[in-house]
Amino acid sequence: MLIYIAGSGAMGCRFGKQLHEAGNDVILLDKWEDHIQAIRENGLKVSGDEEKVVNIPIMRPEEAKEQADLVILFTKAMQLPDMLEAIQDVIGPDTQVLCLLNGLGHQEVISKYVPEKNIIMGVTVWTAQLQGPGHVYLASTGSINIQSLNPDGQDKGKEIADVLSKANLNAIYDEDVIPSIWRKACVNGTMNSNCALLDCKIGELFASEDGLTIVHEIIHEFVVVGQAEGVALNEEEITDYVMQTSKSAAHHYPSMHQDLVQNNRYTEIDFINGAVSRLGRNHDIATPYCDLITQLIHAKEDVLIGKK
Ligand SMILES: NC(=O)C1=CN([C@@H]2O[C@H](COP(=O)(O)OP(=O)(O)OC[C@H]3O[C@@H](n4cnc5c(N)ncnc54)[C@H](OP(=O)(O)O)[C@@H]3O)[C@@H](O)[C@H]2O)C=CC1
Ligand SMILES: CC(C)(CO)C(=O)C(=O)O
């Protein structure tokens, strides 16, 4: 199967490596010149659970020309439209396009470039971290839930789940993936933004009484807005999931902390808390916590990165 990984940062490298090792023709796509050069010259360096070098092709998105069987989207959310624009040549009438980005609202963006029957939405709890250009750190295990957006795509969606599982990525075909996407967005909406603002680890946020109050208010806003969008969300179940995740990830700085505080990079806030604020406005639902947190993250982007 010819698979392009559209956005080959940390997660793209993980998925690309595992699918390549399972015997697929995998091509990584990315715009970061130093990363492309490092992988071309030295291969993809992997550390963590295993130490190895994997020789895997990589190119700039606009250099990809052959129509793919599968494209896996793994950009940061704000890079998604540019990536989809750049890879139009590889998206043929039967190319399946799988989105595993964190956050909300990506299906509307993808629908502008891909027929709905070929769009597969998903969510993953695999993790990965770039150590530098051409070097990815991969540890522990994970899983993926995916579902075709349109019932006509269901057989293809199940085939793709099978391809991912053969690469040990533990994919299941989920008959209702949208609540799982919201649940993960809620984990990110409580932990990522607050830890980036407070410059703390997840365990430190949850050990603070006021921190915990903010977490519960955010969960409530996600649930009420999600329900207004027609997504079946249960506040108690989501709260349990967030609390459990906060325990298993207590010693971690979330990825938004790594992006903004550690590396001074723009964040996905508009697709997490910012998305809930936007959708809340459409339904006349007040979302004061998500509104303020989104503004504070943008202000911190201004302070640390400079005026956009
Ligand atoms: N990392 C994780 O553990 C998880 C991430 N996700 C989600 O997956 C998606 C992709 O995330 P992830 O793989 O972590 O993203 P990364 O930050 O590792 O990479 C995303 C893109 O950013 C650019 N980039 C990254 N680092 C640099 C750098 N130092 N200098 C210049 N450019 C750089 C590259 O794109 P370009 O050069 O084109 O700008 C790259 O394709 C996101 O939606 C994320 O929320 C989901 C689950 C877990
Ligand atoms: C660690 C975790 C689960 C918490 O937000 C995460 O998803 C991230 O860092 O992006």
Residue share in helix: 40-55%
Sheet with the most strands?
A: 8 strands, mixed
The CATH class of the largest domain: Alpha Beta
- Helical element count? 12
Shape: globular
Strand content: 15-25%
Number of extended strands: 12
What are the defining features of this structure?
308 residues, 2 domains, eight-stranded mixed β-sheet, four-stranded mixed β-sheet, 12 strands, 16% strand, binds NADPH dihydro-nicotinamide-adenine-dinucleotide phosphate, binds ketopantoate
Describe the structure.
It is an enzyme of class 1 (oxidoreductase). This is 2-dehydropantoate 2-reductase. GO terms for molecular function: 2-dehydropantoate 2-reductase activity; NADP binding. With 308 residues, the chain is α/β, with parallel strands linked by helices. The chain has 2 domains: 2-173, NAD(P)-binding Rossmann-like Domain (Rossmann fold), CATH 3.40.50; 178-304, N-(1-d-carboxylethyl)-l-norvaline Dehydrogenase, domain 2, CATH 1.10.1040.10. Helix content is 47%, strand content 16%. The chain contains 12 helices and 12 strands. The chain has helices spanning 10-21, 33-42, 80-86, 106-111, 154-166, 177-198, 202-207, 209-228, 235-248, 255-262, 273-282, 288-305, and strands at residues 2-6, 25-29, 44-48, 52-54, 58-59, 70-73, 96-99, 119-124, 129-132, 135-138, 144-148, 171-173. The protein has an 8-stranded mixed β-sheet. The chain has a 4-stranded mixed β-sheet with strand order 4-3-10-9. α6 (177-198) packs across α9. The longest helix has 22 residues, at 177-198. The termini are far apart. The model has no long low-confidence stretch (mean pLDDT 97). Bound molecules: NADPH dihydro-nicotinamide-adenine-dinucleotide phosphate (NDP) and ketopantoate. NADPH dihydro-nicotinamide-adenine-dinucleotide phosphate is lined by residues 7-12, 30-32, 74-77, 79, 101-102, 124, 127-128, 130, 255, 268.
